[in-house]
Amino acid sequence: MLGGSVLWFRHGLRLHDNPSLHSALEEKGFPFFPIFIFDGETAGIRKLCFEQDCEPVWRARDDSVKNACKEIGVVCKEHVSHTLWEPDTHTVATIGDPPRPVGEVDFTGVKFGSLPESFYNEFTVFDKTPKPEDLGVFLETEDIRMIRWVGGETTALKQMQQRLTVEYETFLSFYWSVQDLFRQVHQGRLTSNSASHFITGQLIWREYFYTMSVNNPNYGQMAGNPICLDIPWKTPSGDELQRSVCAGNWMWVSSSAFEALLDSGECACPVRLGQRLDPSGEYVRRYVPELARMPVEYIYEPWKAPIDVQERASCIIGKDYPDPVVNHLVAAQRNRNAMKWLSRSVAGRLQKDKWFDIVGELRHILQKAPPHCCPSSEDEIRQFMWLNE
Length: 389
What we know:
By secondary structure, the protein is mainly α. The protein has helices spanning 19-24, 40-43, 59-72, 117-122, 153-177, 180-187, 195-213, 239-246, 270-277, 282-287, 307-312, 328-347, 358-368, 378-384, and strands at 5-8, 32-35, 47-51, 75-79. Strand 3 (47-51), helix 3 and strand 4 form a beta-alpha-beta unit. The longest helix has 25 residues, at 153-177. The termini are far apart. Residues 1-84 form the Photolyase/cryptochrome alpha/beta domain. GO terms for molecular function: DNA binding; FAD binding; photoreceptor activity.
């Protein structure tokens, strides 16, 4: 058993395009241990490989592991594969080509290490893969059991290809519809697939935020975070948004780090925004099944539906679905006022007898701020937040 190599899984279990896995299997004939937690000194390993966690919250842990490996003579290899570039050492001015994808691993001849019997006695070993309920994890409510989540790397790769096909065909059909693609091909001007620009932009956007997080230990919170305004947000009120998050997504847009958005004085109306982004209301119908049969003209304002319409939709407001919990017009004005007061508080120039202009006040704040995370232009803000033109 002595002399084995360990692959330390942290964020993911992927076998596809995993340079740490390749590194762990470089030397044939030695036991191989793919693990989450492992006592390397007891097992007598000679090599530890893992994917880099670039966020500062994990730095102390990984530094301790590296030091421990050095003390006991274990080779420690950390690979950059969760991000495209090494965030801690690269800047926009110095980045080169990102690491190339690596091939799939041939496990023929790989000798998987076996655990000593004492491990089975010391730790709980399941006879089969446990369900979340076996570990005390339950759904918040049975109402969100609307999708069947099929996990696994094979499924993920298949779904990614399906999604890329949809994206490609969607963008391609647009160019065909305006005959632009034919004209550019005919004139020899088409050099790249325009559909790829959007995907590339999203990847670089993700990379940018990882880079911004490297030297910011408070990156995951507002308090003490130099790139955020510490805004006392209230509980969000969109049922379909919260249910979709519970069903397997995540909330990835917060204005906390986008203070330039706050100088517009705009408050997005959830009714008008929904009507613009999803006119047919399919998103609401999926995640708020109580409103699934509501006519499209009332899907975003069901409380305005006449009682006979509510009856036909099997959704009586106040009984099957709650009455409005907030008056949007009143709440929007209250939020505008709150942001004005916040801008003065941050600037440290609160004056009770005078209202500062929110645009000028926030710009004054930002001029004094150190370099930090923010959109590069107003156009980028509006595009990112799906605001009206």
